[in-house]
Design brief:
alpha/beta; five-stranded parallel beta sheet; globular; binds thymidine-5'-phosphate
Length: about 220
Amino acid sequence: MKDEVQGKFITIEGIEGVGKSTNIAFMTRLLRSAGKEVVVTREPGGTPFAERIRALLVDPDCDPCTPDTELLLMFASRAEHLAGKIWPALERGAWVVCDRFTDATFAYQGAGRGIESGHIGALEAWLQKGLRPHLTILLDADVQIGLERAGKRGELDRFEREELQFFDRVRAGYLDIAQREPERVKVVDASSALARVQEQIGRHLAALLEEADAAD
Ligand code: TMP
């Protein structure tokens, strides 16, 4: 198993438009002020090669793409990202804050596209070698609210062009993971005021910082 790492791995998840970027900036500030080295990254992407794969995945001109191809490209990007950035950072004791990770694959390619979760689980076991996030913040909001916010950001990418029902399945997929793994996945209502959202995120981070200090 390769998960005996020094640093902590934190992921942030949710459908489009739930405010991941704003809250990643908040989390990074908070962890840095606690004296941690923080590496901020994203999926798909995070290394030059993985960003090239990301460009293909989000390009609306690269449609159609079969769900299986989409799944394999997500994991190809993830394998590069793990090897080139996530593992080296965690091994030297940095805290990694990642915008999406494998929960997104279960939610989008699994619940959204209908791929059997066993296939995703097999890739996860193979490529992650036991590594899973120590904490996942799931920003949850009504699909309509999220898509309206995402729509204001400019041209829609290949995923953002999906129909509402797709995002309903993705949201339900995320909530299902949170229900099964309440210790790791913390659901935060992204439709409440930003101060309230950040107060809750701050509490979850404080608990992880405390746990890490106690283990030192
Ligand atoms: P975003 O980073 O702007 O949210 O765009 C990335 C898109 O990729 C987003 O629509 C979710 C999607 N995605 C998957 O479908 N599966 C995955 O495993 C990941 C990491 C992202």
